[in-house]
Amino acid sequence: VYAIGDVHGSLEQLRALHAAIADDLRARPIAAAVVVHLGDYIDHGPDSAGVIALLIAGPAIPGARVVNLIGEHERMLLDALQGDRAAATDWLWAGGRETLTSWGLSPDLPREAWQDALPAAHLAFLRSLVWSHREGDYLFVHAGIRPGIALARQAKDDLLTIRQPFLWTEQDLGVVVVHGHSTNPAPVVTVNRIGLDTGAGNGGKLTCAVLEDDRVGFLAA
Predict the structure, then answer these.
(1) Whole-angstrom Cα distance, residue 174 to residue 151?
(2) CA dist 94 to 77, 88, 137, 163, 209, Å?
(3) Interatomic CA distance for residues 196 and 216, integer angstroms
(4) CA distance 176 to 130
C-alpha cells in the first residue's frame, strides 16, 4: 500500500510522487498495489483544481488500485455548497480563496454562485470521496480516531479533525492508523499510528508511506 499525505494544491509534487511510486513498482513488481490518498487535496497550494483533475483522470501508476479519502477541507467546501454559511467562512479563511482562483474564479465570488461556477466533474469527485479504508492491520483515515471507541462507531468529525487525544495515546487501537491532518516536518511513526502530513502546500514536502508485510518505507517529493 502506498499512502499519500495531505496534498493541499501541490500538483507538481503529487505528479512527482506518483512517478516515484510507478518507478518503485517497476523495480519491485507485485501482484496488487493500492494507492491511498488521505484527503485535503485543496486549499493553500497553487493548483487545487489541477490536483482534482489529476485524481479524476487517475494517477499514471499501472496496475494500482486508487482509494481517495475525504479531508476536512473538502468537507468544509461541501458543507458550504449545502448552504452552511459558517463552513463557507471557515473555508475561505482556510485557503478557499486560493482554490477559487485555481478554478479561474474570483476569490470574492459570492458563496451562492459557487455551486454553478465549479466544474461539475470536480464536484462529483468531491462527493465521491470515502471516509476510511482498511487494508489488513492498517486503517486509513484523514485525521485519526478517538481512543476507546469501536472502529464502527467513530464519529465522522473525529475522522476528519481529531488531534488530541489521538496523537498522544499509546494504547492499542486494534489497528495502526495511517493519517494526515497534523503537520510535522517529517513522517511520524509510533506503535499505533503513522502520520504523513509533512506540510505540502505550505512549503513542506509531500510524503508517501510504502507499507509492506514486514517494513515501512517512505517516498517524498
Answers:
(1) 9
(2) 10, 10, 33, 17, 26
(3) 12
(4) 19
